[in-house]
Amino acid sequence: MTATGTGPLAGVRVVELAGIGPGPFAAMLLADLGADVVRVDRPGGAGLAVDPAYDLTNRNKRSVIIDLKAPQGPGLVLDLVERADLLIEGYRPGVAERLGVGPRECLARNPRLVYGRMTGWGQDGPLAQRAGHDIAYIALTGTLGMIGEAGGPPVVPANLVGDYAGGSLYLVIGVLAALQHARNGGAGQVVDAAIVDGTAHLATMIHGMMAAGGWQDRRGVNLLDGGCPFYGTYETSDGQYMAVGALEQQFYDEFVRLLGIGDLAPARKDLARWPELRTAVADRFRTRTRAQWTAVFEGSDACVAPVLSLTEAPHHPHLAARDTFTAYEGLTQPAPAPRFSATPGSVRRPPALPGAHTADVARDWDLPALAAAPAPTPVQEA
Questions:
Q1: Whether residue 292 has pLDDT greater than 70
Q2: Beta 36-41 vs 61-65: how paired, if at all?
């Protein structure tokens, strides 16, 4: 089948009410896969001191500026909604309703619409109206408490686990599932994607292991949390690190052989001797540089890899061969994922500058009122 290059979501129209964090990332993912995402920016921007020309979560989108507090603002958004398949918003519960663009108004205008709501705490519950950020959401679900060394404090995994894994990706799964339902003859609906729900869901396997007695409810002492000496990171002689994941016996055997401790390593299944094994592994890794150990394990099934920085990663031979990163208009960035054999996604547009596409959207979505409406001056690239 010939690849079209348009993405599997070509023809899907998305309205994104501008926000920060997981909502924009979810909309970017939809746009990467070919959806026509129109971001409704507010006058004055999102409130973050970020040059919009470098906000990669707004790539592949188009932007219009609509003041939802102006008399004509809600009506213009509802005009977009009438022509859309999906809407994404990340306001606190009740804000969209007060602005006149809540689910009741939007679904009345377009009964097949999928209305995606992205919040940290969810649309209801005792904390629903409270402010929060990724770190609080993952703390409350027990996820943050899993991460870190035994006896040490929890380690913050940037905002990847909550905002993006537990938030954005669950929102995308939800709205696409609801879109499938609507296109099969069902009604539109509201998708309540709460970061606390998604983050808790991510730990499903761990909860099962804990129930079975295979996971202790404390960090740094388990198979996959750094407590296991053959699943963790080790410092090299040049202050860099290697990552080890030699869980299965055959991979472990190759690991200790290439590391050069095959005759010294105690039995891997003897948990009482794990500290001894960890010391042996750590001492050995400190005898060479990261580059030297990378060469030792190259081409093996020992499940060992160098820990690269963000700037180093795009140059790794495997990632370069797969084009895992791409350069578009001078900005190196992760390429769209996952990959499709017939309808690949692509980076087609740079980050959308607020208000830069009003005329194009008005034409393509057949909305002359949008083009005619008085609009604030678009935010220009700094």
A1: yes
A2: parallel
For the chain, what is the mean pLDDT? 93
Calpha distance 308→314 (Å, rounded): 10
CB 36 within 8 A of CB 107: no
What is the DSSP pairing of strand 36-41 with strand 13-17? Answer: parallel
Instruction: Provide mean pLDDT across the span 19-46.
Output: 93
Is-contact 353 46, C-beta < 8 A? no
Write down the pTM of the prediction. Answer: 0.93
Token digits for 259? 């590391």
Are the CB atoms for 305 and 242 separated by under 8 Å? Answer: yes
Amino acid (one-letter) located at 9: L
- Residues classed as catalytic: 133, 163
**pLDDT tens digit string along 117-151?**
999 999 999 999 999 999 999 999 999 999 999 99
Specify whether the CB–CB gap between 209 and 215 falls below 8 A: yes
Confidence of residue 227 (pLDDT cuts 50, 70, 90): very high
- 105 with 111: CB under 8 angstroms? no
CA quadruple 117, 119, 125, 127: dihedral, nearest 10: -160
Collect all residues with Cβ–Cβ distance below 8 Å to 295 and sequence separation of at least 6: none
Half-sphere exposure of 169 (CA within 13 A, CB side): 13
Query: What is the DSSP track for 114-154?
Result: EEEEEESS-SSSTTTTS---HHHHHHHTTSGGGSS-TTS--
What is the strand order of the sheet 189-194 is part of?
61-65, 36-41, 13-17, 86-89, 114-119, 189-194
End-to-end CA distance of the chain: 44
pLDDT band at 378 (very low <50, low <70, confident <90, very high): very low
When pLDDT is cut at 50, 70 and 90, the band that residue 6 belongs to is confident
Strand, coil or helix: 326: strand
